Amino acid sequence: MDRSSSKNNSTEFGHTAPASGAATPWGNNKESPNNEDDSNEDDGDNATPAKATDPLAPRLANNERILVVSVTERQRETWGQKAEFLLAVIGFAVDLGNVWRFPYICYQNGGGAFLVPYCVFLIFGGLPLFYMELALGQFHRCGCLSIWKRICPALKGVGYAICLIDIYMGMYYNTIIGWAVYYLFASFTSQLPWTSCDNPWNTQNCMPVTSENFTELATSPAKEFFERKVLEIYKSDGLDFMGPVKPTLALCVFGVFVLVYFSLWKGVRSAGKVVWVTALAPYVVLIILLVRGVSLPGADEGIKYYLTPEWHKLKNSKVWIDAASQIFFSLGPGFGTLLALSSYNKFNNNCYRDALITSTINCLTSFLAGFVIFSVLGYMAYVQKTSIDKVGLEGPGLVFIVYPEAIATMSGSVFWSIIFFLMLITLGLDSTFGGLEAMITALCDEYPRVIGRRRELFVLLLLAFIFLCALPTMTYGGVVLVNFLNVYGPGLAILFVVFVEAAGVFWFYGVDRFSADVEQMLGSKPGLFWRICWTYISPVFLLTIFIFSILGYKEMLGEEYYYPPWSFQVGWAVTCSSVLCIPMYMIYKFFFASKGGCKQRLQASFKPDAACGSVVPGQQGTSV
């Protein structure tokens, strides 16, 4: 369906298009005003004194003067082009998980049949939340901290929880990108170092996968390169003894942080230029790899394995839970990124159409990545004369062992390796840009005088702090900590945080009020489908995923690495460190930051702050 029109002409899901002559709340379509305030400061009335010609103006004595103060309002930055915003959102949503997680979950849960629950949860769960965050950020034009005084002040702890989760993500996600950087530099040789078993790091069990004597007891050169050269995990004892920091790996991760800094230090002015490369490059590489993959022998068997529907698996509740989890973590609502990115949009930008376009592209990218991965897995099964289920791995092992293994057997392997790891790096950079920008925008909006005016310095100090915190992930046992942080950092906590966020917006602020906000931006109120999803389906969707994730947290850790008993207590402490921000701030807001009796304190805590002023151009005050 054509969505290139500048008007919101969509009628899908009950979203009625505005009339062609409907007036927009922003007549000249220029930049919207910035509603940045220092923390806990109220907006005063900047009224200009009445002119002397005003008959209602008070008469002044000869020695009295009127002091006229000119107040210049700081304008919030906006994206240089609409395409920059779309690319930034797509880049954040399309990450490494689209390549290494979706294909594995798809074939594990019924192949083509898995697309049924996947699309169901996209329409009823993921897309409504995605649309909500884009609309919230665009309407209120602030990050995940300042926005809560306009919605439900007591839930400001949600914003602090998101900032803490983003720090945890930065601690391990950039390390994974650092692994890809290590592989990229290792690829600039005449022969890929994981092609043979003649290297100093190889063991006696090493054997090329093309060997007829290859058994389950043997290890491939690619596996030994990853575990014994890149990570050197054999020098550690897991979390009990992680060993020292590996200098070469730390240098690669440091390079990632340098790239991140110079992409984020100027805000949307710098990030908007970078996303043209980091968001588009993965698609160019994916298409090149797809063309190469489908031309390999055995590729057709791999694609059949990927797509052949096993309808009986839909009776298994785990398939539906996996589909719900995958769509949630793929779209990424709740990390504060969508709020931050959309807050730099113009007020009457069509965020409804943006939500449909970007979420659809994200899901189609996952589907495309499945063809890229399984065509190569089919080829590897053909080379090894085995079944596909014995070739594939989930997670990092898929992109750092299996795929490099396949590349090493191709002609022109050096070229394919270079572009593949460039794709992984750009996929990862976009996502880490988004996660960190969410926190940076939130703190700059909350403290504009202290932090906002010194953004470059603040971003430098923040990234230096996260890099120091991430050093343990660069040790010889760092890969165990990376997997540990992935589960206990954002993995469990973000589900609860987003549930509280949805409850605050849909139940405390109210779907009717939120729909009215959308109508002011787009000229039409969201249809019945969206209001039902926001009121009932989406919160239940989040709560269900959270409960099942809590029950299956050990399964999320996997069985590849050993975790000592004490690590589970530490893991839950990490999870609670972000989750507890929510009740702790509610207690602070009710008992210490509010005045009056119990009724007045409840009203001050759970109703929008009337002193915030209106975000709608040309209006003063706000209705609560």
Structural write-up:
By secondary structure, the protein is an all-alpha fold. The chain has one domain (82-606): Amino acid/polyamine transporter I (Up-down Bundle). Helices cover 59% and strands 0% of the residues. The protein is built from 23 helices and no strands. The chain has helices at residues 82-93, 96-100, 102-108, 115-140, 157-186, 221-230, 247-264, 268-278, 281-294, 299-307, 317-331, 337-342, 351-384, 396-408, 413-446, 455-470, 478-491, 493-522, 528-551, 553-557, 565-579, 581-591, 598-606. Helix 4 packs parallel to helix 11, helix 9 runs antiparallel to helix 15 (413-446) and helix 10 (299-307) packs across helix 13. The longest helix has 34 residues, at 351-384. The chain is globular, with a radius of gyration of 26 Å. 48% of the residues are buried. Mean pLDDT is 83; it is low at 1-14, 16-58, 67-73 and 618-624.
What distinguishing features does this structure have?
transmembrane helix, metal ion binding, Amino acid/polyamine transporter I, 624 residues, mainly alpha, disordered C terminus, 59% helix, Na/ntran_symport
Helix content: 55-70%
Give the SSE string. HHHHHHHHHHHHHHHHHHHHHHH
Provide the β-strand percentage band: under 5%
What general outline do the C-alpha atoms trace? globular
Return residue spans where pLDDT drops below 50 for at least 5 consecutive residues: 1-14, 16-58, 67-73, 618-624
Specify the CATH architecture: Up-down Bundle
> Into how many domains do the coordinates divide?
1
Protein name: Transporter
Transmembrane segments: 85-103, 115-136, 157-185, 245-262, 274-299, 319-341, 361-382, 414-436, 457-481, 487-508, 528-550, 570-591
GO cellular component, one term: presynapse
Biased composition (Acidic residues): 34-45
